[in-house]
């Protein structure tokens, strides 16, 4: 029975009660002291976490989505966005999760003070700098997730102190160095992702000690050497990803015994050897990617036993023999990629019978056997493949049969490739039922009959390749219904009749229209709708009439081939607008009249053939005409002049009247006398002004910084071989630039010698000195020193000495001279990197240096390229310096200054007297960005009557961008137009990125300054474009 409380008290004596009271008091006092101390300690630790988080925030200046706006005193730090605190150790931070917030900055070392931190998740941001060593102090850390950033430097070695780590993901950064051997001590590690970095060296065998590892991602690094056998100790390994390195040797045979592996990717290395029969030992394998190596031998017959296989990628190797006939067991198979091997028996019997089995693969999407040695007929069972099939390519084999009529059953197919085989018979009309078809390649076969009119039903078609067959009849007008057609190949057939106006009116044609080597007749109808066409070939037909004036509207043409026809009349003046022409062939026609002089102004023209016509008159001597290997005018008997190597007769001078000769005898002495008098006057004026300038500048201190090397006039004279013309590398507004070698330090330099006779040269010298003396940035041209002295004649001498840039200027790469570096070309990613470099330099000048600097003369010739094609902004001769306050106050005020900059790149507000501003540089950058990707100068003659490079690009957005960009960008990564779905995805990815870049260029070059971006915004967006482009490309290449 439970007693009441008062009854319990009566059981104790008074002495016991006193003792109990004392004990309680003592315990309470002790607890109070202990509690107070704990409270102080806890408060201190809580404050420590908050201070650490604020320190982290202070190193993140870019927060476009406002992810850190809650990080302030109005909220407890456990309530801040991205922060999770412990339940057990209340108010201690355990998780930092700021993924996909576009944050930009560095990761503060204060992160090491968050001692209870278990997870760091910073996926998809713009962090740069090194990963702080202080992370090694986070002994409770389990997840370090930092992919898709720009972290640099080596992986911190003391990360191995975090012995509780389960996941490390550093994929897609800029990390360097080698893989830490100490990773092997992290026995609990499940995921190790280091792919898409600049990591070098070998794969440490000690990684084999990570027996709990399920994912090892080392893709797209610079690793070399063998795949260590000790990795076979990781029996739990599911993802083994080492594609895109420089690995050699063989795949360890023991890896093929790991039943846990379901993703094996070793593509794009230099591995070799044969593949063992692994179907029984890898039952869980889902993706098997070996493409781009040196593997050989037959395809394992046990493949079909890996019944979970979804992707087989063995393309670009040296596999031989037949294809396993029971691939149909792979019910989950989606992609079968075997292009560029030697697969086939070469007996020509049953090489293609495996297709019968593939009809059981209900999820099949891609079959690519391009460029193998398969022989034999196409089985009719190809018509029974799954309707999920999207790509069917057997290009460049030895298939000899007709195309099965039932191919029209593949209703979801997007690409059919049977080019370069021995196909016979006619083109099935049932192909016209394939409404999703985008690319049809049937060229280089023995197909006969007519082109089916049903092909006009293919409204999604972008590429139609029927070239080099035995096709006859006329071109179906129904092809004009293919409103998305970009490339049409009908060359080398037996086609007759006229070219349908419906086809010539297809404004979608951009990549090319090839009708050459047929028997087409009639005149070339209106071509003005082909405004986006890049290549047109109608050569070797029977076309007649005059060359249409409407060609002048085809502003994107770079190749025009009309040779071997019956065209007559003069070469139309409207061709003057085709400033992007690279190849022009009008030979073997009946053209008359003179050669237009504007052709010598076409800077991109590298092939011109006007031979065997009836042209007459003078042959120009400049531009393409200056190189006999690039031009042919043979067979025009009435032509004269030109360069000596053309071996034409000299032109007869026109006769002059005697009266005129007598008049000249009187006029010429008068003109000469007046000219000499004028020269004498100018000499005295110039002499006086130079004295005044020298007086003003002689007392100016050029550099008061001891770190700059002092050079004399004699040293520069020796360095440049006495300013030899052989050393001359450029001439600018205020002087000349010479290449030189400083003998004492054996350094190649560029010496800019000021022409002090030119008005403003001395001021330009001082401006550039003042602008460059405190600037330090990887994307600015580094100044080594300046020289202010006198030459051996006692004349004042001024020179600036810069770091030498071996790859010249961006101008030389975008617009090479005809007799210069014709083979130079910038890839898409190079252009994007250069754009980022230039933007980074301007962002530094505008926002990160004091005083701020406005460049005022940004253009391609003022952007130089070093050994690694890194861009350096140069020429600060007319730059403007501002303090922060003076810039803000003067930004919008009118100015009496002379307009600063170069024609075409100068902001329009400068012409109205508005003061120099950062927005002016942004405008110049926008024009430069558009020029880089369209390869069109803003000063081209085509930009008249209100049309400018800005409006030209703006009108193309968004659907016509691919028609205005430089064709070399489009052909950058593809030797063939589209080979697989991977290439198709890459093409779409490239188009998306180009649209973004052109849009950015248009925004930056807006007429209203307030509508332009800041350079900080430009840098951020460019990094985002590049990251997105690379991410999509990686996913496409890995699928």
TrEMBL record:
Q: Which SUPFAM superfamilies match?
A: L domain-like, Protein kinase-like (PK-like)
Annotated membrane-spanning segments are 666-688
Note the topology in the membrane.
Single-pass membrane protein; Single-pass type I membrane protein
The identity of this protein, by name, is: non-specific serine/threonine protein kinase
Q: Which Pfam families match?
A: LRR_1 (PF00560), LRR_8 (PF13855), LRRNT_2 (PF08263), Pkinase (PF00069)
Q: EC annotation?
A: 2.7.11.1
Q: Which reaction does it catalyse?
A: L-threonyl-[protein] + ATP = O-phospho-L-threonyl-[protein] + ADP + H(+); L-seryl-[protein] + ATP = O-phospho-L-seryl-[protein] + ADP + H(+)
Q: Which residues form the Protein kinase domain?
A: 723-1026
Question: What does UniProt give as GO cellular component?
Answer: plasma membrane
- Which family is this sequence assigned to? Belongs to the protein kinase superfamily. Ser/Thr protein kinase family.
Task: Please state what class of enzyme this protein is.
Answer: transferase
Q: Where in the cell is it found?
A: Cell membrane; Membrane
Residues that bind ATP: 752
Q: Which UniProt keywords apply?
A: ATP-binding, Cell membrane, Glycoprotein, Kinase, Leucine-rich repeat, Membrane, Nucleotide-binding, Phosphoprotein, Receptor, Repeat, Serine/threonine-protein kinase, Signal, Transferase, Transmembrane, Transmembrane helix
Spell out the molecular function terms from Gene Ontology: ATP binding; protein serine/threonine kinase activity
């Amino acid at each position: 029975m439970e007693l009441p409380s008062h009854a319990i008290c009566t059981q104790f004596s008074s002495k016991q009660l006193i003792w109990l009271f004392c004990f309680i008091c003592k315990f309470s006092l002790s607890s109070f002291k202990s509690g107070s101390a704990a409270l102080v300690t806890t408060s201190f630790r809580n404050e420590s976490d908050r201070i650490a988080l604020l320190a982290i925030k202070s190193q993140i200046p870019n927060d476009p989505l406002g992810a850190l706006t809650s990080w302030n005193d109005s909220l407890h730090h456990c309530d801040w966005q991205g922060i999770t605190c412990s339940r057990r150790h209340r108010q201690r931070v355990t998780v930092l999760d700021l993924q996909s917030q576009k944050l930009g900055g560095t990761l503060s070392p204060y992160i090491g003070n968050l001692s209870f931190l278990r997870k760091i998740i910073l996926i998809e941001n713009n962090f740069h700098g090194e990963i702080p060593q202080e992370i090694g102090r986070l002994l409770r850390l389990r997840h370090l997730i930092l992919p898709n950033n720009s972290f640099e430097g080596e992986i911190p070695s003391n990360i191995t102190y975090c012995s509780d780590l389960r996941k490390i993901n550093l994929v897609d950064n800029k990390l360097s160095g080698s893989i830490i051997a100490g990773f092997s001590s992290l026995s609990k590690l499940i995921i190790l992702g280091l792919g898409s970095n600049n990591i070098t060296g070998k794969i440490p065998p000690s990684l084999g000690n990570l027996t709990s590892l399920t994912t090892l991602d080392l893709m797209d690094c610079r690793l070399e050497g063998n795949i260590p056998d000790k990795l076979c100790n990781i029996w739990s390994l599911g993802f083994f990803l080492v594609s895109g390195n420089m690995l050699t040797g063989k795949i360890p045979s023991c890896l093929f015994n790991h039943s846990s592996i379901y993703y094996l990717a070793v593509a794009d290395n230099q591995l070799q050897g044969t593949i063992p029969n692994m179907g029984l030992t890898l039952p869980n394998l889902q993706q098997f990617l070996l493409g781009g190596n040196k593997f050989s031998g037959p395809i394992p017959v046990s493949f079909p036993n890996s019944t979970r296989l979804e992707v087989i990628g063995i393309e670009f190797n040296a596999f031989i023999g037949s294809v396993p006939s029971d691939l149909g067991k792979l019910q989950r198979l989606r992609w079968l990629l075997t292009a560029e091997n030697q697969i086939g028996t070469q007996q020509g019997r049953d090489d293609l019978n495996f297709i019968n089995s593939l009809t059981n693969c209900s999820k099949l999407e891609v079959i690519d056997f391009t460029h193998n040695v398969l022989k034999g007929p196409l089985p009719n069972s190809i018509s029974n493949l799954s309707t999920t099939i999207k790509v069917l390519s057997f290009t460049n084999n030895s298939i000899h049969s007709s195309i099965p009529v039932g191919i029209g059953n593949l209703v979801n197919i997007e690409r059919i490739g049977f080019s370069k085989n021995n196909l016979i018979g006619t083109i099935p009309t049932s192909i016209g039922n394939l409404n999703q078809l985008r690319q049809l390649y049937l060229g280089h076969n023995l197909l006969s009959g007519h082109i089916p009119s049903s092909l006009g039903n293919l409204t999604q078609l972008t590429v139609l390749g029927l070239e080099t067959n035995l096709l006859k009849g006329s071109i179906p007008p129904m092809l004009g219904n293919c409103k998305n057609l970009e490339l049409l190949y009908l060359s080398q057939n037996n086609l007759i009749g006229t070219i349908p106006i419906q086809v010539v009116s297809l404004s979608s044609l951009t990549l090319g229209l090839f009708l050459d080597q047929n028997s087409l007749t009639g005149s070339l109808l209106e071509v003005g709708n082909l405004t986006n066409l890049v290549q047109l070939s109608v050569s070797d037909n029977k076309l007649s009439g005059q060359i249409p004036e409407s060609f002048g509207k085809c502003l994107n043409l770079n190749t025009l081939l009309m040779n071997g026809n019956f065209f007559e009349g003069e070469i139309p003046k409207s061709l003057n607008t085709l400033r992007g022409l690279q190849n022009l062939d009008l030979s073997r026609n009946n053209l008359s009249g003179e050669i237009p002089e504007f052709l010598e102004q076409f800077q991109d023209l590298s092939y011109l053939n006007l031979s065997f016509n009836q042209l007459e008159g003078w042959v120009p001597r400049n531009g393409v005409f200056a190189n006999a290997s690039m031009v042919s005018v043979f067979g025009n008997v009435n032509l004269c002049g030109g360069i000596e190597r053309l071996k034409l007769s000299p032109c007869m001078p026109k006769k002059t009247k005697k009266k005129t000769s007598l008049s000249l005898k009187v006029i010429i002495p008068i003109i000469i006398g007046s000219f000499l008098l004028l020269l004498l006057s100018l000499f005295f004026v110039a002499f006086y002004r130079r004295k005044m300038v020298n007086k003003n500048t002689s007392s100016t201190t050029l550099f008061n910084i001891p770190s700059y090397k002092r050079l004399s006039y004699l040293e520069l004279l020796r360095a440049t071989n006495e300013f030899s013309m052989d050393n001359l590398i450029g001439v600018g507004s205020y002087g000349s630039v010479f290449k030189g070698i400083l003998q004492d330090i054996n350094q190649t330099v560029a010496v800019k010698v000021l022409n002090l006779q030119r008005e403003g040269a001395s001021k330009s010298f001082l401006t550039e000195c003042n602008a460059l003396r405190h600037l330090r940035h990887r994307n600015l041209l580094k100044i080594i020193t300046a020289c202010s002295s006198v030459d051996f004649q006692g004349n004042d001498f001024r020179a600036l000495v810069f770091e030498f840039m071996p790859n010249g200027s961006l101008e030389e790469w975008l617009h090479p001279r005809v007799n210069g570096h014709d083979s130079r070309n910038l890839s898409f990613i190079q252009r994007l990197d250069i754009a980022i470099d230039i933007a980074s330099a301007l962002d530094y000048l505008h926002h990160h240096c004091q005083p701020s600097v406005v460049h005022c003369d940004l253009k391609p010739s003022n952007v130089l390229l070093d050994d690694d094609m890194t861009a350096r902004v140069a020429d600060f001769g007319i730059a403007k310096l501002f303090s922060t306050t003076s810039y803000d106050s003067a930004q919008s005020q009118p100015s009496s200054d002379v307009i600063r900059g170069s024609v075409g790149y100068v902001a329009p507000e400068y012409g109205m007297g508005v003061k120099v501003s950062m927005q002016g540089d942004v405008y110049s950058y926008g024009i430069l960005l558009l020029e880089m990707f369209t390869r069109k100068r803003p000063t081209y003659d085509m930009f008249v009557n209100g049309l400018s490079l800005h409006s030209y690009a703006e009108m193309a957005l968004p659907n016509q961008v691919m028609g205005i960009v430089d064709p070399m960008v489009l052909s950058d990564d593809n030797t063939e137009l589209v080979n697989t779905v991977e290439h198709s995805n890459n093409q779409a990815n490239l188009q998306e990125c180009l649209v973004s870049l052109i849009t950015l260029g248009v925004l930056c070059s807006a007429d209203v300054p307030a509508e332009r971006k800041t350079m900080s915004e430009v840098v951020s967006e460019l990094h985002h474009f590049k990251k997105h482009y690379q991410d999509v490309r990686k996913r496409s290449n890995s699928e």
